[in-house]
């Protein structure tokens, strides 16, 4: 390991440890929505078409669902703009370990995936529901290698599934009953 990489690892480990201990970072999520399986997430997504919730964030419901679909699709096809290799080997995996240990993640809910096409605020809800359901189906059927996450780096299929479920659950925190 070269000096620059070793320094990045040590700094990242210190930041993650200090932030988690202080409880001040956005990684600490207090929401209660969690999906245990892709089937559980599918059922919740399918139910949205019948009675869409009121959104409390910057994005429409269709934008949120299309954003989640992009993430699943990119895990299969490759992310358009990955973080630098040193980040995907140090800070990214450490952040994911914190998320995974807590069973929830936190990120800016209006942040697009780097390099992804803009999300249409007026996209039809039915199309977004179908896109995300199709992305989950495709992910579940996929038997080959998965693409590295743009921030977390290489993830195996069960870990990627947890990442997708935590990602969706975090966005679900912006949904309020209609």
Helix fraction, binned, reads 55-70%
Content of β-strand: under 5%
- The count of helical stretches stands at 7
Number of extended strands: 2
> How can the largest sheet be summarized?
2 strands, antiparallel
Number of domain units:
1
CA-to-CA gap between the ends? 53 Å
Query: What is the strand arrangement across the widest sheet?
Result: 1-2
Observed structural traits:
single chain, 178 residues, disordered N terminus, mainly alpha, 55% helix, 7 helices
Describe the 3D structure.
The protein is an all-alpha fold and 178 residues long. The chain contains seven helices and two strands, in the order H-H-E-H-H-H-H-H-E. The chain has one domain. Helix 1 runs parallel beside helix 5. The longest helix is centred in the N-terminal third of the chain and has 20 residues, at 3-22. The model is unreliable at 1-31 (pLDDT under 50).
A few lines on this structure:
With about 180 residues, the chain is mainly alpha-helical. It has helices spanning about 5-20, 40-50, 60-75, 85-90, 90-100, 125-140, 155-170; strands at about 55, 175. Strands 1-2 form a two-stranded antiparallel ribbon.
């Amino acid at each position: 390991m070269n000096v620059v990489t070793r320094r990045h690892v040590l700094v990242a480990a210190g930041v993650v440890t200090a932030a988690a201990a202080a409880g001040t970072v956005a990684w600490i999520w207090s929401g209660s929505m969690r999906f245990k399986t892709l089937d559980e997430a599918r059922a919740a997504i399918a139910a949205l078409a019948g009675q869409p919730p009121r959104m409390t964030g910057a994005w429409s419901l269709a934008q949120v669902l299309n954003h989640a679909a992009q993430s699943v699709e990119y895990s299969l096809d490759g992310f358009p703009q990955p973080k630098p290799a040193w980040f995907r080997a140090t800070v990214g995996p450490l952040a994911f370990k914190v998320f995974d240990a807590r069973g929830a993640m936190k990120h800016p809910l209006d942040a697009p995936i780097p390099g992804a096409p803009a999300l249409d605020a007026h996209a039809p809800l039915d199309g977004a529901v179908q896109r995300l359901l199709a992305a989950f189906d495709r992910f579940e059927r996929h038997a080959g290698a998965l693409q590295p996450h743009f921030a977390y780096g290489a993830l195996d299929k069960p870990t990627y599934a947890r990442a997708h479920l935590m990602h969706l659950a975090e966005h679900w925190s912006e949904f309020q009953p209609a």
